[in-house]
Sequence to fold (277 residues):
Amino acid sequence: MSRNSPSPKDDLTQLKQKLIHYKSEIRNVQNQLKSYERALEREKENTSFWKKKHAETLSTSEKEVEIEELEKELDLLRNELSEQKIIAEAFREKASRKQPVIEEKIVEKVIEKIVEKPIERFEKSDILCFFQHSILLPEQDESELMMFGNVIIQNQTSSTLYSPTLCLKMKPTASAMLSGKIIDEKDIEASSVPSSSLEWRYAHPKWNEKIQNDGEYWIKPIKQTVLKPKGKLLFDSFQVVIPLSTDTTSFILEGFFYSEEWQEGIPFLNKVVLNFP
Fold:
């Protein structure tokens, strides 16, 4: 195909432009036609009026000639309008015949672009963070409630997330105690626990004060320092012990996910809320 030859898309664009032009012309002709019809009616009314008022002086032949000329002009406009409608319909049919071919080519181009370049996803909603938990109700002679849970983070973005960090926040502050596969970074080398079982460490240098003052547990994975696209991060099998007393009316556990890319934090999709009678 010659470089200068118009593409089907260009043909369709030109046809649409012509169609718009003809529609505009048709509207103009229709408006003119209505204008002439109104003028004709006014002339008829004037003729009737003057025939009654000045029958002795009015030359009806002149008015009849003028009306006849207006009617001829009106017929010409009607014929022109019919021709414009025929031309517009022909262009419309031509455009409809080319439309499926052009649409097919456009779809092929879109598919090619999708195959060539993957969709970039990096929205906050593409990072799924949530709790799974169960409650162990106390016996009559027990004064503590146990909760067992998992934290699941799924990276649905198209980018790797670096330095993933969790913040688990309890309300009221210091109303419960969380434990799990967590260790102080200073104790990693001296720990007697097998290295395969060491999964998380405290991320805050004064983590104990953070827990006591703010009810926040800041933790980071020891080995999994990045979260790849479509990857998953687990903080599993943690336990929360909630002392029950007359002062305990409710307990809330919230979660937030952080990374180098999301330093403002992403709240979990759910939270644990317990109310006590």
In short: The domain at 124-275 is CATH 2.60.40.10 (Immunoglobulin-like). The mean pLDDT is 82. Residues 60-116 form the longest helix (57 residues).
